[in-house]
Calcineurin B homologous protein 3 (Daubentonia madagascariensis), 165 residues
Amino acid sequence: GRCPLRVGGGAGARGQDRLKENFNNVPDLELNPIRSKIVRAFFDNRNLRKGPSGLADEINFEDFLTIMSYFRPIDTTMGEEQVELSRKEKLRFLFHMYDSDSDGRITLEEYRNVVEELLSGNPHIEKESARSIADGAMMEAASVCVGQMEPDQVYEGITFEDFLK
């Protein structure tokens, strides 16, 4: 039978709260600064292999297992090709957590949000510092992926291919 985890009626704050309720009893998630992103990843259609964007209203047990499969350790008895595929799937899952609007790019704004959330628990790091850390990392990504940029060239964001680099 189906054992759905519900998001709740429609978008908005109430729906989000109901979504979180199902995961609030997981002790290891309680103190995780990016808990909301992790929870959202369980309902992301891209991770559920159900479409290029959007969030599912509920997930059943099979969907839950699909998500959990991203976390399984790499089996050393697998062939080189399978190991590479498994590694890529894990990285794609991570990429989807950063790429919150499903446009295939991690923009500076999306990256700043993640860094700010990750550092939010640290009382010694202000928002400005978090932003400059994100900005520096994004410049580094641009130099690795694009190389020497022209002065008027804008780096649109990290694609999955860039992310693999």
